[in-house]
Prior knowledge:
three-stranded antiparallel β-sheet, 10 strands
Amino acid sequence: MNLDRIIAVSNNKTVYRDGDSCIKVFDSDYSKADILNEALNQARIEETGIVIPKIRAVTMVDGKWAIVSDYIKGKTLDRLMAENPEKKDEYLALLVDLQMSVHAHTCPLLSKLKDKMNRKISQADLDATTRYDLHTRLEGMPKHNKVCHGDFRPSNVIISEDGTPYIIDWSHVTQGNASADVARTYLLFRLAGDMDGANTYLDLFCKKSDTARQYVEKWMPIVAASQSVKGNEKERQFLLSWVDVVDYE
């Protein structure tokens, strides 16, 4: 296994290319349970028929756990947006179409989004009254069982050389309400400072899916609170600024 070519580096993991294989190597202190769960989730998503890189192995590399999957030769949507800014709306429309195609699937063995969010809200740096209000709002939201990617953004879509879109990074996948997944993507655009992209994306999703924007917005405080328990201090403060539950009935 050749680890000479690094293609991505993020918190606690490094991704390498070795021929037609992609090797994600986790830091030695990364949770084994989380790594095996990520591989299991990706394998379950493979079985749904969603177009993703297929897992080839879960192995050890120099004493560190690694997930080996297909290497997809192509460009991510965020790179294409940067290279072709005049086509940004077209790429955002594709992003929405792909996300909706994910939401069209079910996968009953995935963890439930509501359960995960309830745990995260309990851990959030918020007072007890606010946490209670958020838990109450979450419990009042409609219960769905759609596949929710959990980190759906342009950098997690690769357009292969033959034009086929592949969706990557399934470590946060759950089953639940699609609008919660959309609220997460909207906040990711906002975190990146792309206000125009965030609004265009949300408008496109609401139009294509016939979903009221107000309905997605009801998820914003819940999603922001649940996401605030990770990331750096700047991200936490931004997300916590979205937690305002005074307005709900």
